[in-house]
Amino acid sequence: MLSRIGLAGKVAIIIGAGGIGGEGIGPSTCSLLAEAGANLVAVDVDQSRAQAVAEEIRRTGGRARPVVADVRQSEQVAEIVSVSLAEFGRIDVLVNIVGGSVFLPAMDIAEDVWDAQMVLNLKYVLLCSRAVAAAMIKQGRKGSIISIASVSGITAAPHHSAYGAAKAGLIGLTRSLAVEWAPHAIRVNAIAPGSINTPRNLAHRQERGIEDRMKKATPLGRIGEPTDVAGAVLWLASDLADYVTGQTIVVDGGRLLNQLTFHMKEGEHKT
Q1: Edge-to-edge strand list for the sheet holding 143-148
Q2: CB of 150 within 8 A of CB of 125?
Q3: How many CB atoms lie within 10 A of CB 19?
C-alpha cells in the first residue's frame, strides 16, 4: 500500500511552485511530492521563488529543477516540457496551481480584467495540460494531471464572479480532458479548496474581518492548511487513485455542505 502512494522515480511538474514567501499550496505540494519520491520541476514566474523551493527540496535530499516561465504564453509552456524531458527524461504528473482573484462587483469588472482572469485561471491550464499530455502520449505510459479549482467554481461567487466563472470552466475542462485522454491512460482531475491559510487568503480574510465567522461556518471548525490540499494532490498523483478521473475533490472542511444545508433549511422555513 505504501508503495502505491509513493512516487519514486516519477517526475512531477508543479506550475506555481513558489507560493508567497515560501508558503502556500505550491511549496507544500512540492515538499510532499518530493517526500513521496518524485523528482520535481518547480515552475514559477518569479525566479527567486522557483529557486528557493527547488533549493529546499535539494536540501532535504530530493531532486528539483527550477524553471522560470510565464505559463500564459504557449511558447514558454513548450519550454517547460522541453526542460523537464532534458533534465529527467520523462513526465508523469502535472499540477496546475497558478490562479488569482479580483474582488469586484460584476457591474464594475472591466473587459480587460475579465479577460485576464480567464487567462490566469483557465486558459493556462489548457496550455499546460495539452503540452504535457502530448509528451505523456509520446512516452506511452500513464500520467496524472491535477488542477487546483475552487469551491467558488461550484457555488455562487458574488463580488468575484470572473474568478468563479473561470474556476467553473476549469472544472468543466477537467471533465472533457479526462474523457479525451482516458484512452492514453492519462487521468485528469481537479481539487476545489475552500478557504486555505495561504498568505493571500489570510490577508483577505483579516481585511474583511471574517476569520472567526468562516471558522464557525466550517463543520471541522478550522481554516484549511496548504498541506490539506497537498495531501489530496498526492493521492490523485499516486496509483491509489488509478481508477479516478474527471473528478473534482472538494477540500473545504465541510463548509460547502454546511452552506447547502443552511440554504435548504432557510428555504423550508420560508415555505
Answers
A1: 64-68, 39-44, 11-15, 93-96, 143-148, 186-193, 248-251
A2: no
A3: 24
Which of these, 69, 84, 182, lies nearest to 127 by C-alpha position?
69
The owner of cell 480584467 is: 113
Q: Judging by DSSP bridges, how do beta strands 39-44 and 64-68 pair with one another?
A: parallel
- Note whether 173 and 125 are within 8 A (CB): yes
Q: pLDDT, tens digit, for every residue of 181-224?
A: 999 999 999 999 998 987 777 776 767 777 778 888 899 999 99
Residues tagged active-site: 163
The residue segments making up the domain with residue 27 are 2-270
For the chain, the domain total comes to: 1
Q: How many Cα atoms sit within 13 Å of 169 on the Cβ side?
A: 16
Q: How confident is the model at residue 268 (pLDDT cuts 50, 70, 90)?
A: very low
What cell numbers appear for 100 in the block?
Answer: 488569482
CATH at residue 127: 3.40.50.720
Give the whole-angstrom CA distance, residue 257 versus residue 259. 5
